[in-house]
Every structure is written in C-alpha cells, then in structure tokens.
Amino acid sequence: MDLRLDGKVALITGASRGIGAAMAAEFVAAGAQVMISSRKEPDLLSTAAAIEARFRDSTDARKVGVFAANAGDPDAAAACVAATLEQFGRLDILVNNAATNPYMGKMIEIDLPRLDKTYEVNLRGAFVWAQQAWQQYMAEHGGNIINISSIGGLSVETSIGHYNVTKAALLHLTRSLAKELAPGVRVNALCPGLVKTDMARALWESGEEAISQMIPLHRLGEPEDIAQAALFLASDASSWVTGTCIVVDGGMLL
Ligand SMILES: NC(=O)c1ccc[n+]([C@@H]2O[C@H](COP(=O)([O-])OP(=O)(O)OC[C@H]3O[C@@H](n4cnc5c(N)ncnc54)[C@H](OP(=O)(O)O)[C@@H]3O)[C@@H](O)[C@H]2O)c1
User: Fold this and answer.
1) Residues with CB under 6 A from ligand 1
2) Which of 96, 153, 155, 220 lies 20 to 30 Å from 171, alpha-carbon distance?
3) Does pTM surpass 0.70?
4) What average pLDDT score do residues 74-82 get?
C-alpha cells in the first residue's frame, strides 16, 4: 500500500520523542505538514530540526511546526489547535499521544494528586484536544482523530493499574466519539504493546532478552512499528474504519 497524506495537516501531542516523534517523521515522509507538541520547547525544536534535516536536500523541503503545551491543560490545548490553524490553515488529523504514568505500585495505595494527574493528562486531555479540534475546525471540515491507548487498556496489570484504567476508558471514548462525530470525523485508537521508549524503560530495560522470548514475534516494539499503524489510520486507506482499535504488540496479548 502506498499510504500518502499529501495536503493534510496533522497535530501530534507528546511528539518530542518516542512514539510521537516517530509518527511525526512518518507523517512528514508521507507528505503531511505536521505540528508537534509536548511540554518542553527545546526538545520540540531539536526533534523538528531532525525531521526537517531529512528533507533538506530534496526539492520538497518541509517545515515542522512546534508548540509547547501540557496535554492536561485545556487552555493550552485550545491555543495549540489555534496555532496549528494559523500556521498551516487546516487540521485534518489529531493524534492524542501524550500520556503520563506518575505512579507504579499497588493501585489501591495511590495518592489522589497522582491519580488526578493520570486522569487529567491521559483521559480528560485526549477529550479536550478532540473537543478543541472539533470546535475550531473538524465540525465544519471533517477530520480524523487517533487516540494512543495501550494493550494495558485491554488487560490487567496492577502495578500500572490507574494508567491502564485511563487507557481502557480512552478506548470507550474512542468508540463513543466515533459514533457521535460520524460521518465527518473518524475516531480510532492504537493499542501498542511494550515499545522501547523512555516511558516504558522501567518495564523493559533490565530484562529485554527474557521479555522478548515471551513475545510471539520475539522482540520489543520500536516507535516506528506504531507509527506505521498510525499512518494507516491517518490515511484514506482506512476510510471505512472508525470506532475501533488496532493492537500492535508482536502478539504479546496472546
Ligand atoms: N512505550 C510503550 O511501551 C507504550 C505502550 C503502550 C502505550 N504507550 C503510549 O504511547 C504514547 C507515547 O508514549 P512513549 O512511549 O512514546 O513515551 P515517551 O517516549 O516517554 O514520550 C512521551 C512524550 O510525551 C510528552 N509528554 C509527557 N507528558 C506530557 C504532558 N503532560 N503534556 C504534553 N506532553 C507530554 C513528552 O515530552 P515532555 O516530557 O517534554 O512533555 C514526550 O514527547 C503514550 O500515550 C503511551 O501511554 C506506550
């Protein structure tokens, strides 16, 4: 399949590194203009420069937009969507990728500030960014929303229990919004398995070889594995797909 995004504009949260940065690079390579967002502007600027450098010698130079925003802050979401529209003139694809996991341990023992933070960024955040995209552009022009959930939203792992509750709820938010916003806006989710990024480092770094042997495809995920599935959902190749999730986990859930 030749998956192209020519003429499309995408906004990706949590895109200064890891899966978000890989999606940004994949989307730019497919022809999209991309706005990347996360909390730290210096990291965003260096990620944007690295993506732009790949196209420096081509006739088709790309400019990657950056906007620093905390995904849990509704005002920042509104401002970032507005900045995307101001810089690029449209917003076809929103990827709710930013997430946080400030607590590991028995879920029954979590303190309320960290519980609230997990919900604020991972669940309320995804809703608010979708609401802003809808209100400022997609209600009138249509669009495509991709929520990055997790296989933790489909299974039980109590050491990251609250994070997984937000990821399960994100899947239901995906289904509910897909029905409500159709036919103009498609809403889908991706459920990655264990991917080699900073966020999951505590889960894989000390035992990569042993964990790989427990995964049917015998390796951990790379950010690009998720980015390629995101490109499918972002492109017209998935034009009859809405309200569902794609599991990308090397068979780990099995
Ligand atoms: N890695 C895995 O194994 C795995 C598995 C399943 C699902 N996922 C999901 O995949 C997505 C991406 O995770 P990742 O593994 O790529 O993580 P990562 O490498 O740690 O990257 C996280 C990104 O999100 C940004 N970020 C963190 N908190 C933020 C906030 N409050 N507001 C805005 N941006 C924020 C970070 O930049 P700043 O710190 O500068 O803000 C960074 O750009 C997440 O939704 C995660 O839950 C990951």
Assistant:
1) 13-20, 38-40, 43, 70-72, 97-100, 121, 148, 150, 192, 194-195, 197-200
2) 220
3) yes
4) 98
